[in-house]
Amino acid sequence: MSSDTLHHTDHGLATHHPQGGWQRWLYATNHKDIGTLYLWFAFVMFITGGVMALGIRAELFQPGLQYWQPEFFNQLTTLHGIIMVFGAIMPAFTGLANWMLPLMIGAPDMAFARMNNWSFWLLPPAAALLIISLFVPGGAAGGGWTLYPPLSIQSGMGMDLAIFSIHLLGLSSIMGSINIITTVLNMRAPGMTLLKMPLFAWTSLVTAYLLIAVAPVLAGAVTMLLTDRHFDTHFFKAAGGGDPVLFQHIFWFFGHPEVYIMALPAFGIVSQIIPVFSRKPLFGYVSMVYATCSIAILSFMVWGHHMFAVGMPATAQLFFMFLTMLIAVPTGVKVFNWIATMWQGSLTFETPMLFAIGFVCLFTVGGFSGLILSIAPVDTQMHDTYYVVAHFHYVLVAGALFSLFAAVYYWLPKWTGYMYHEGRGKFHFWWSMIWFNVTFFPMHFLGLAGMPRRIPDYALQFTDFNAIASVGAFCFGLGQIFFFFNVIHTIRGGVGPAPSSPWEGGNTLEWEVPSPAPHHTWETPPDLATVQRGLRAQAVE
Amino acid sequence: MLRRLLGVGAFFAAHWACAQDAMWSFQPPVTGIARQIESLHTWLMLVIFVIFFLVFGFMFYAILRHRKSLGHEAKPFHENTLVEILWTLIPAIILLGMAWPAASVILAQKNTHGADFTIKATGFQWFWSYDYLDHGFGFKSKLATPREQIENFDGRGQAKTEHYLLAVDEPVVVPVGKKIRILTTSNDVIHSWGVPAFGVKQDAIPGFIRDTWFKAEKIGTYRGQCVELCGKDHAFMPIVVQVVSEDDFSKWIATQQARAKAAKDDPNKAWTRTELIARGQQVYEANCASCHKSNGIGGGAYPAIVGSKIATGAKAAHIDLVLQGKNAMPAWSALSDVELAAVLSYQRTSWGNQADIVMPAEIRAARK
To answer: What residue intervals traverse the membrane (chain B) (predicted)?
Structure first.
């Protein structure tokens, strides 16, 4: 690093302009380039995982086996889950953090630019391992994204590839997190104290801490799985004195915070967007920060609610139930704050705002079904049924994904220098909104009536809702291709050049730099007056 | 009564119309626990709908009225301590109102004491076996829907019958109004035993015993499915419980006990080669054919038995494999010595395989 710093002072920045062609991307150290790489990678994975989802929905369109053998169906559900969580949603948020954090806090780049390159370039091999695993003997991992043993101990080498892939993905996440934490804590512009930075920086910071805490836990769990499979250890094998339920405890100690790793950045994005299009500062900035931190802390104490059916003692069920329900309080505070931000505002409904409002509506519905599931006795009926599938798609698709769409439309002018086509953006929103609900709302009913999840074939009373959900899924998928062309259209010029601050209410620092954002920004930190001006959006003056 | 009024009438518009085939909501409950779960759910839905209408009411009022296009000016307030404290405290109190009734249901669910008798349910890939521990017999309960109804590849396949995927060859039979304790465990991977109408769901975990209970209040047939991903035929291991009168139950017990006695392999019998192989075919069809296919050709992750090194090689390795399991193949040590000897003999002499048969005594020796 030190020689690099010297290099800077000696020659100035002229030599650091982007190299041409593939070298620019392979050797990328610029936060904007890496952010772009992350976002495109996430999009490719999103489409890959989406195609798998359509494979699942095609099979479930009607009762009976039509297209896939059950083994392959299980591989589809497993890979769909792993790819969407680790390949699409998480890298997309890291990409956004890479692109936007330095701009928003007035830093010239991420703290560890070369590690940033490495953390991105671990992802494509990890993804390749997952895809290759489809073609090895025995096929890909088919034990569900939760990889519960002993089922995951049984399967073929596809499982080993999935485990290695998860190791790589975890490594990448940890490095990304280190970068985010260091950047946010050390590289803010003068005058931007912690309680004055944009909420997206806050949620990214807290998310990064969550990841550092739990990614090693997952790595440990899958490593134990690996040694159980090949080196005759018996961590999870009852025959040798191991405990299959131990894996579930470890997995969900990772897995529950993981849920918030996918939700907190979404909260941050929405907290940036709603004030801008309401032309009001964010209501309750400080309580938003507290809510974010309380959700993060609580998320470590509630993993047992994923395991109400394994037969835990009544006291443990009560403990996990009460704490799980408690998460509704800070989450409720967030929703109330967003609504209070809109209240008495001067609202306009450009695409980012539509997606943000869509997020609030649907995430609230997902939160309600989460509350229902938190009640342990009721969970007895819902556990491992389609109700759970409905619930987590409401929080992850309508939550994480919609917030990502909001973010893309919101910052696309900054990234490309062009405005997207508003009509097409709105069409994408309404199309996604409608078909999302057609796909996932009926799943609540399927779950209530008792249809187990992860089955390739179902009893006849589940036919109608499954048919509806499948139609919805295909239409929803189609809409995302439209989104792709929409983005390409914008990159190629869209409906014209974007001003540096295209949104009337946009105050945060990223709107101070020209659009498209130059390769190097904030080489000197923004002055105090600029920072103060940006804080108006944060309600702290 | 209140529950009916609140739950059904107000919210799920179609709930009452379709309650019978359980399309919009829970299957009609037939135990006290299931009924408590349903009313708990109704109470939660009531609270949630009130909050939903309040929250969305405020939001959509703002969306409709506080628009820039209507000339609405933004009022840049951004905090109000009282409001913020209130909307933290009030939800916390509402949550208490949800948690309190739930806690008592948990305690009731967990109380398995004082059962009239106990049934052990063991999960296998992919069927259930039941042992009536107090009555001294057991049986396996397998999917009765024929494969021809399930597989519709290339547009083929038979029409589906009424209880498609929810019918078994041998249902669990219990008397009405008795507290039945269910022990769950598993032979291979984690399965989960659940019957929605009873409000019961309990994972079946290898190496561990868990328990749950129900007391069915109505005679009838109640259906559930394995609810934990357990491999390729996860969708095909239904659970069927017949609740019958006490008289019918006693009769059923008597016939089952007699049948069990008759079907038992006589441990002192000297098996001939033909008898052993014929018995082996039954065991094979019942336990092995779902993976290795009835003609032994295997498929996917499941190796062929026809011409395999194991099935035509040394007996010891073959016996060991079946007793210990390997990769996707679970240990089959739960089968009896005779059953194992028979099935191995069948595998070693069928479909062109020409190896020696295995006698029950060899299995007994290998177990030690």
So the answer is: 43-64, 85-103
| A331 has catalytic annotation | yes
Using alpha carbons, select from A52, A48, A47, A62 the residue that is nearest to residue A456. Answer: A62
Tell me the C-alpha distance between B299 and B305, whole Å: 10
Please give the model's pTM, rounded to 2 decimal places: 0.88
Q: Which of A152, A207, A331, A364 is catalytic?
A: A331
Per-residue pLDDT in tens (0 to 9) along chain B, 368 residues: 444 444 434 344 343 433 445 678 889 999 999 999 999 999 999 999 999 999 999 999 999 999 999 998 888 888 888 999 999 999 999 999 999 999 999 999 999 999 999 999 999 998 999 999 999 899 999 999 998 899 888 877 788 888 999 999 999 999 999 999 999 999 999 999 999 999 999 999 999 999 999 999 999 999 999 999 999 999 999 999 999 999 999 999 999 888 887 777 776 777 888 888 888 888 888 888 878 888 888 877 788 888 888 888 888 888 888 888 877 787 888 788 888 888 888 988 888 888 888 888 888 888 87
* B34, B165, B192: residue with CB nearest A384: B192
3-state helix, strand, coil split of chain B in percent (to 5) is: 45, 20, 40
Type of residue numbered A92: A
Residue B74 falls within a domain, yes or no? no
What's the gap in Å between the CA of A276 and the closest CA on chain B? 11
The domain in which residue B299 lies consists of 273-367
A173 catalytic per annotation? yes
Do B280 and B239 fall within a single domain? no
Q: Are residues B313 and B355 in the same domain?
A: yes
Same domain flag for B121 and B257: yes
Number of domains comprising chain B: 3
Rounded CA-CA distance B48/B37 in Å is: 16
Residue of A48, A155, A165, A172 with catalytic role: A172
Residue B85 lies in a domain: yes
Task: Classify each residue of B42-53 as buried b or exposed e, where b means 16 or more C-beta atoms within 10 Å of its C-beta.
Answer: bbbbeebeebee
Let me know whether B144 and B102 are in one domain.
no
**Between A238, A333, A364, which is nearest B55 by CB?**
A364
Residues B154 and B97 in one domain: no
